[in-house]
From TrEMBL:
It comes from Siminovitchia sediminis. It catalyses: L-arginyl-[protein] + ATP = N(omega)-phospho-L-arginyl-[protein] + ADP + H(+). It comes from the Bacteria. InterPro entries: Arg_Kinase, ATP-guanido_PTrfase, ATP-guanido_PTrfase_AS, ATP-guanido_PTrfase_cat, Gln_synth/guanido_kin_cat_dom. Catalyzes the specific phosphorylation of arginine residues in a large number of proteins. Is part of the bacterial stress response system. Protein arginine phosphorylation has a physiologically important role and is involved in the regulation of many critical cellular processes, such as protein homeostasis, motility, competence, and stringent and stress responses, by regulating gene expression and protein activity. The keyword ATP-binding applies. The gene is mcsB. ATP binds at residues 27-31, 92, 126, 177-181, 208-213. This is Protein-arginine kinase. Residues 24-255 form the Phosphagen kinase C-terminal domain.
């Protein structure tokens, strides 16, 4: 493995397969926050402590080579260029906080990119596991497997009453943040999301944009995750989230069926207008590209478009982000240059897919 592999391949290996309800649920993510006993939290620790933790992580990556998830590649954040860090954020392999604010941060990445262990982010260790579709229990099982490996090598900060100790009080307890990434274009088009989001919040869950807290819901893609980590078991957190997500999936499917039934020609027109923009534009901004890609994916899921796969939309959602575009181009681009490059890349990728499938 190499840094270039993580930077140059838009779609992670795990994204190429489909999971349960993957027409609506793009991914399931489990993140465990852990800290080490006898070390200050990252907000207060010294550079020496930070470097010591990075050294521990590197040693672990070198030792754990025979697991079924393969070898973990070790990358030090300080050694990465700004553009390289941005690409890793766009691929959800590291958090914006680790990219921007980490002191002597690092990350351990699996070859399939379904495992990411961040070092010296908000907490000493953040274990992240990603699965396609609705597979929260499977992701939790994998995360707990990694957690057990680490716990055998380091001494966690743990309190018998409070649970795992974390930098942010909202993570104390299980330290578990479970989330799903969902594509909800029909609920947006039928103006139901403004009603659904407050209802979700009242259940102790939170709805965020594509890159988490403070980010925008580009392309009608949202993250839904738990807010409560203290006083509930991992099983209860997962089951509560699955229950709500399944209801949202049912509402999205009902909204899609209603659109097809009551506004068929309008929906078909919207889908193919967006496809036409993607296939022929010479300049396109991130937001417009994301909206058009969302429409085209809806067209695939509802059967209007039959010569494209969902995977190409997953790929283009990442490939057209500013950081990845510049990585693809081989260097920094001005905003207008990015918009031109984005349009060209989308056109080329769609033509390649049409030739491969024999589509019109």
């Amino acid at each position: 493995m190499s840094l270039e592999k993580f930077l140059n391949q838009a779609v992670c290996s795990w994204m190429s397969s489909e999971g349960p309800d993957s027409d609506i649920i793009l991914s399931s993510r489990i993140r465990l926050a852990r800290n080490l006993r006898n070390y200050k939290f990252p907000t207060l620790f010294s550079n020496e402590e930070a470097r010591e933790l990075v050294s521990k992580a590197k040693k672990i990556s070198e030792e754990e080579t025979d697991r079924d998830f393969g070898q973990l590649e070790f990358l030090e954040i300080d050694g990465l260029k700004a553009l390289e860090k941005r690409v890793l954020v766009e691929k959800h392999l590291i958090s914006p906080r680790l990219a921007e604010n980490a002191t002597h941060g690092a990350v351990l990445l699996s070859e399939k990119e379904d495992i990411s262990i961040m070092i010296n982010e908000e907490d000493h260790i953040r274990i992240q596991c990603l699965f396609p579709g609705l597979q929260l229990n499977e992701a939790l099982e994998r995360a707990n497997e990694i957690d057990n490996i680490l716990e055998a090598k380091v001494d966690y900060a743990y309190d018998e009453q409070l649970g795992y100790m974390t930098s942010c009080p909202t993570n104390v307890g299980t330290g578990l943040r479970a989330s799903v990434m969902v594509h909800l274009p029909a609920l947006i088009h039928t103006h139901q999301m403004n009603r659904i989001i407050p209802a979700i919040n009242q259940l102790g869950l939170v709805v965020r944009g594509i890159y988490g807290e403070g980010s925008e819901a580009l392309g009608n893609i949202f993250q839904i995750s738990n807010q409560i980590t203290l006083g509930k078991s991992e099983e209860d957190i997962i089951n509560d989230l699955i229950s709500v997500v399944q209801q949202i999936v049912a509402q999205e499917r009902a909204a899609r069926e209603a659109l097809v039934k009551t506004a068929n020609i309008q929906l078909e027109d919207r889908v193919f207008r967006s496809y036409g923009i993607l296939a022929h534009s010479r300049i396109i901004e991130t937001k417009e590209a994301a909206e058009c890609l969302s429409d085209v994916r809806l067209g695939i899921d509802t059967g209007y478009i039959t010569h494209l796969s969902r995977n190409i939309l997953n790929e283009l959602m990442i490939l057209t982000q500013p950081g990845f575009l510049q990585q693809y181009a081989g260097g920094p681009l001005r905003p207008v240059e990015r918009d031109i490059k984005r349009a060209a890349l989308i056109r080329e990728r769609l033509k390649l897919e049409e030739r491969r499938t024999g589509g019109d």
